[in-house]
Amino acid sequence: MSDDLVMLRPVLENDLPMLEQFLMDPEATGEFQWHGWSDPGRWQRSWAENGLLSDDGGQLMVATGPDRLGFVAWRKVVTSRNSYCWNIGIQLLPKARGRGVGTQAQRLLVQNLFAHTPVVRIEAATETGNIAEQRALEKSGFTSEGVLRSLTFRDGQWRDVVRYSVLRDDTASADAPGRLDSPPATLKPAG
């Protein structure tokens, strides 16, 4: 893995096979994200439609230099008739875990969403047993809001999750190492 700063960039067509690992390979996905096999063609279909970037959410690659390490994602959560927030998530390959990559990538995603959308709130959730992700979210500026009981079904049982949020005002003085390659809102899929 390169020692370059963590960066986020749009997904390219040649990234799609790597993303498919997260739908087809329990080892790559990791304990807290494996929910069984899923349709690997969904990445290709979504990429062909909109480059995995839309008004309702998207995915960006997490990379250091030429190394693809995983992706971050966000989706719109409607909170009332005239407002919404973002819910974010991250998936990293095993080689990128435990190195601070997730913290940097999530911090960059938060900065990007606050810079380019009018939301005041970004939220995330992780299983209560996923201590590494809880630490990464806290280091990224998120605040724990509490435990939601039996919210997600994985590996034969219902799991509790910890809900986190970060507000626009919370990030006013935050500085993140890393960079965004080209503003994602202006990019279209190649071809």
TrEMBL record:
GO molecular function: acyltransferase activity, transferring groups other than amino-acyl groups
UniProt-listed InterPro entries: Acyl_CoA_acyltransferase, GNAT_dom
Ranges where the N-acetyltransferase domain occurs: 6-169
Superkingdom, taxonomy of origin: Bacteria
Statement: the UniProt record of this protein carries the keyword Signal: no
Record's keyword terms, sorted: Transferase
Protein name in UniProt: GNAT family N-acetyltransferase
Species of provenance: Actinacidiphila oryziradicis
